[in-house]
Amino acid sequence: MDTAEIQGFLASFEERLAPVEKASGETYWALATTGTEEASREVVRTGKEYNALFSDQDEFERVKGWYEGREALESRILRRRLEILYRTFAGRQGDEATLTRIEELEAEVNSVYNNHRGRVGGEEKSENELRGILRSSDDAALRQEAWEASKSVGRPVEETVRELACLRNKLARDAGYPNHRVRALDLQEIEVEVLDRLMNDLEATTRVPFEELRGEIDEHLRRRFETERVMPWHLSDPFFQSCTHEIAAVGRSDGGPRADADRYFEGKDLRALTRETYDGMGLEVRDVLARSDLYERPGKSQHAFCIPIGRDYPYDVRVLANAEPDAYWADTMLHEFGHAVYDKHINPSLPYLLRSVAHTSTTEAIALMMGALASDPAWLSSVAGVSEEVLEAERDYLHRSTRADKLVFVRWSIVMYRFEAALYEDPDRGDLNELWWHLVEDLQLQERPSGRDEPDWAAKIHVAVAPIYYHNYVLGHLTAAQLRHHLEERVASKPFFQSETAGRYLQEAIFGPGAREGWEETILHATGEKLDPGYFAESLR
Ligand SMILES: [Zn+2]
Known about the structure:
mainly alpha, binds zinc ion
């Protein structure tokens, strides 16, 4: 193979890619912060431009040829650039019409999710408002209405989500894969069998502890709402992704004051808490804070994310959030800024294609490790300024709460994982509503409202626009547990968030190297061991 030819091609391709990637970052940001028709059209336009970069068949064949012969290349860096470019190309292959249609439909559903408001008592409510009702209201009828409203976006997007799944499958089959899921995992450098086994093992190891936890929660909810049957609207999270509010109240349903984590954050400035947290590790976030859009506003995306705009140094990294001074948003802010510090510390002298995170699960690991601080007694005391007196009384609760929340999240992730596996096997199957509820009943032990036959699965935005993604959160949790253990036992010898040494270690071992290595090697090199789910299992004890 002609190394100089490959080098030349990569360099010129990176030059073409850079401005288009930057423009699509800008337009995506504009859409998320304004929700306008014009912004939506711009996203479609830049999406097409981006896809066009990868549409030349001859170029793809050349890249594929080099990729297949890459073992002969001496330079590891060159090999890695080829691997990344090949996978990016492969992920964009397909007939023009299908690719364009997918872009359009994704933009369309995104704007539905952004602009849809469920109705309660005839009034439109934002997701934050619905979440607020489910968190605090004692009125079961109002809760039911809020829960149903939180699912009401399912119907207007259902058909589009199905169509998107069919179109993604078409692209996958044209590329020789059985369906989109198998293709997506392959392009994420994950073996389907390995991941299936890991998820099945997690299901098995979490079943009994989850049953016990669910029993406790149900007992509390039956008393609180004076009901025999615990329905999904009795829970504080619309999908039962989290249970911190339930754990806060378990055992205190005698009417005594609730140890609600939200009150740690009442009147607190989450920007300041975020800044102080990262300052503690010697990681600068002021530049990111200054570019970010952090508070709720009409027309704006109701979710939260971090996005690097292009890859020019100094990096332009931004966070979108709808922050309110409560536990959920404290966790989310720390989480998104975890992504941000990763993005902004990637070694700028790396070649363009390697100036990126090693893997989605790796950046999720950092984000999850940081977000978890919002319920960490040591962080609450030293950074959030919660008094020792309060913490002393609540240490045990915080420990239970953190453990319970991880359990609940893993069970919920398995619902998503199995649902998507079935969806991509046959997006046209007529019983998706049924299948969804079957999984929710089996894995989350949640009784289904009698006669409910609604596309509740389509109310989850990931199913529509971030398909085959959820396992990255699970891998992220496993990685985070292992990494935190490594940082505290072998690097910092104290809580990692109080250690500039830990911050430097993260920069050197994970952030700096960017995408030089895949996710498995990154974990191995950063912690000295391959991914070991044992650390996560340990954290559930
Ligand atoms: Zn994340």
